[in-house]
Amino acid sequence: MTGFLFELSFWLAAPVWLLMIFAPAWSPTARIAASPLTVVPVLLVYLALAVPVFPELWTAVSSPDLDTFRDLTALADGAGAIWAQVIAWDLLIGQWMYQEARRLGISALLMGPLLVFTILLSPFGLLVFLGLRAARSRRASRDDLTAAASGGAM
Description:
Layout: H1 2-22, H2 27-33, H3 40-50, H4 54-62, H5 66-74, H6 76-104, H7 108-120, H8 122-153
């Protein structure tokens, strides 16, 4: 059962990722990506995996050290719970990136591959996006200043 739940956690998140990557301009995609409720099914899987190992999970998070964490991940349900948690948080990060990219006018052709990268290695994907976001924000501020200066000169 643990193996099934491990796999299920990804497949529950996959439809939202697919919409953000392959149908970014479709209006239902924007509504779906704006909802934090997309992670609830994945979190239910997390609970199903975490409850049986709750004492070990509690020990790992209340007194974190590498050996305690290693003991938790040695348990199938412990590793599965951590995986489901990662899937849920990665999805929330991806949804935020999607929304920010739309707000800033970042091309869907750029964001699609970046979202795939984020699915695979979310810390790296998030760092790349934060750099892109900062560059886009600086450019937008410069453009706003230029437009204001041009408007004032007329």
